[in-house]
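Structural prep section.
Before we set up the soaks we want a predicted structure of the protein with coenzyme A in place, mainly to decide which crystallisation condition to try first. Input record follows.
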Amino acid sequence: MSPQTATMTAPAVQPVFAGVQAPPVPAVVLRTARAGDAAAILALIDAHLEEGHLLPRTLAELTVHTSRFVVGVAGRRVVACAELAPLSATVAEVRSLVVHRDARHDGLGRDLVDELVRRARVQGVDTLSAFTHGPGYFVRMGFSLVPHHWMREKIAADCQACALFRRCGQSAVVLSLTDLGRGGRPVRS
Ligand SMILES: CC(C)(COP(=O)(O)OP(=O)(O)OC[C@H]1O[C@@H](n2cnc3c(N)ncnc32)[C@H](O)[C@@H]1OP(=O)(O)O)[C@@H](O)C(=O)NCCC(=O)NCCS
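Run finished without errors. Recording the C-alpha cells verbatim:
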C-alpha cells in the first residue's frame, strides 16, 4: 500500500433484524491523516488518555505532525490513530496508538502497527520502539522489552525533560526491522 493509498480492513457487516436490514456499518479504511483530521485525532487521544496512559497532545503539535499519523476511518469518523515519530535517522517510535472502544478486537490496532512498520522501513528506520504501560500488546506483535537506557534517542528527545524521568512507569519495547519475517511483517506469537 502506498502511503496515500487506502486499505480496507474490517469487512462491512449488515445485520438483519426481523427481516429489516439495518444501515450498513462502514468498513474501516486506513489512510494517511490529513490536516483536517487533527481535531478528530486529538479528541480520540483525549478520550483514551487515562486508559492508555497516553502522552497528552495539543492541537498545535498534531496539526504540524498530521502527516505522520495513520488513521482508521469508518465512513467519515476517525476511529483509530497511530503516529510514526522519528527519534533519529534510524530509530522511530510508535506514539498515540488508539483504537476507539467501538472498533476494538478486530485487528485494527495490529493493522495500524503493521502500517507503521511498513512506512518505517520505507524511511530507512531499522528500529521501531514504543513506550507503554501495556507492553504485552506489543510483545504479542514481536516487540521485545528492553532497558530504558538502550533508548538513548528517546531519553535525549523526551525523557530528560519529563517530570517522571528516572521514576517512569512505562516499559520500553523495540522491534528490529532488519529481522522481520517474510513479507516484512513482525513475527507474532
Ligand atoms: C491497545 C489497543 C490499541 C488495541 O486495539 P485493538 O484494535 O483492539 O487491537 P487488536 O484487535 O489488534 O488486538 C486486540 C487484542 O489485544 C489485546 N490487548 C489489548 N491491550 C493489551 C495489553 N495491554 N496487553 C496484552 N494484550 C492486550 C486484547 O486483549 C485483544 O485480544 P482479544 O481480541 O483476543 O480479546 C486498544 O485497546 C486501545 O486503543 N487502548 C487504549 C489506548 C492504549 O492503550 N494504547 C496503547 C498505548 S501505547
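Observations: The domain at 24-181 is CATH 3.40.630.30 (Aminopeptidase).
Flagged for discussion at group meeting.
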